[in-house]
Amino acid sequence: MNRHKQHMSLAVAAVFLPLTVACGSAAGDSGAVSDQQPVTGIDWRVDGITAGGTTRHAPATARLRIDEDGRAAGNLGCNRFSARGTVHGDRITIGDLRTTRMACAPARMDFERALARALTTGTLTARTDGAKATLTDGDGDRVHLSRRAPG
């Protein structure tokens, strides 16, 4: 248990340092892009997935949040999920998903399986651009995100 706490403390420290540099409040040679915004601590709407050259639009309920403490949670389009995640700069790894087990229309279930696969197949690279973000896996598949409207 103590090792887990140490690992999480290091993960949290790894999140805050790059975010400080990325936001421009500290100088350094970390290679962080000055206009790169953090992806953690934000309620993201999942807009769609591009996999194998095909883009699929997400159901309105699909969302994702990765907190600084390594907790990832959201909705895959039908079922809610939670998982542990690690964030190191622009690299994100999300572990096995724990999900609810509701059944929805086949198209929603297909999208949710594709999103779950995209989020958990390996390390994702995060890129932000204003209110938009993209998570890209090692195969070039992308999860398209946008900031959720408040309220």
TrEMBL record:
<dbReference type="InterPro" id="IPR053147">
    <property type="entry name" value="Hsp_HslJ-like"/>
</dbReference>
<feature type="signal peptide">
    <location>
        <begin position="1"/>
        <end position="27"/>
    </location>
</feature>
<keyword id="KW-0732">Signal</keyword>
<dbReference type="InterPro" id="IPR005184">
    <property type="entry name" value="DUF306_Meta_HslJ"/>
</dbReference>
<protein>
    <submittedName>
        <fullName>META domain-containing protein</fullName>
    </submittedName>
</protein>
<dbReference type="InterPro" id="IPR038670">
    <property type="entry name" value="HslJ-like_sf"/>
</dbReference>
<feature type="domain" description="DUF306">
    <location>
        <begin position="37"/>
        <end position="144"/>
    </location>
</feature>
<dbReference type="Pfam" id="PF03724">
    <property type="entry name" value="META"/>
</dbReference>
<feature type="region of interest" description="Disordered">
    <location>
        <begin position="130"/>
        <end position="151"/>
    </location>
</feature>
